[in-house]
Amino acid sequence: MERIDRAMKRHTTQLMQLPNVVGVGKGRKMVRGEETEDLAVVVLVEKKMPEKELLRGQRIPKTLGQVPTDVIEIGEVRLLNRKSFQRPAHPGVSIGHYKVTAGTFGAVVRDRRSGMPLILSNNHVLANATDGRDGRAKLGDPILQPGSHDGGSMEQVIGYLERFIPLWKEYTTTECKAARAAERLGNRALQLIRPNYRLNLEKRFIGENPVDAAVARPINPEAISPEIIGIGLVKGVTEVKPGMAVQKSGRTTGLNSATVRTVQTTLKVSVTDNDDAIFTDQFVTTVMSQGGDSGSLVLDNQNNAVGLLFAGSSSSTICNRIQNVMELLQIDVYF
What we know:
The protein has four helices and 22 strands. The protein is mainly beta. Among the domains are: about 1-75, 2-Layer Sandwich (GMP Synthetase, Chain A, domain 3), CATH 3.30.300; about 170-205, no CATH class; about 235-335, Trypsin-like serine proteases (Thrombin, subunit H, Beta Barrel). An eight-stranded antiparallel beta sheet has the order 6-5-9-10-14-8-7-22.
């Protein structure tokens, strides 16, 4: 160990000056793709080049004194700004319907119908919280990356709205003319005896929501990457349980974790300043989100998907079960 430390101290500056080298560190040597127990000075390069294509002075020595070296290709290293334009875009960055401020690109998923990759997030992120009849969004609408709040414009379209699960408000205005007429007459009479009360017969209960979810079709498969920022690739799907440790990578608060408090939960969620919606079969965690994190994929510590984040409060985060999301949208998590 001391020999490696001395070799790094002596040779790092020189190695960093070689073309294509982006870093020098200490790690285990790889042989034919397998990690060994032997420690080495690891040289990180943007792209591995055949030795014959390099000039003698550009080659990384096999050893530094008695210390072995290893070379690992890691590509170009850039700051990961979750609110900036990215191509390919990774889950965890800003995204949104062109009429929406911004949410989070949750995951790359596979369409069960076509086998093609799709972008997963919430209805209220990709489809402007539509129920499909209110004109708030329609299939084929452009999706921006980053979202408009983060500077996204129509020159930064990453895809188009492919499918969504309608988002039903708790109540909606009825189209029944008789109910409207009865309400007007009733309120006129009521004003004579109870001025501060009003009938509201135009409102009717619509239904409950199992998910807040939608998918978009990318402009091309190369525009997106399935590797979630700070987490990596999704390895599978598992059932969420009380007490489970979970994690997410979101546009606003980045990578953080929480503990599942309740499952199979029914709750009321404010979806606009004037409208609530009832959600069923949700799970609630300790807080791990703020505005703009909506749409983040939620995973356990083994990178198995368990949910889709869509709402929260100052002390809790609310998520759809990923199994419901997959069945309703007819998708599979990309792994």
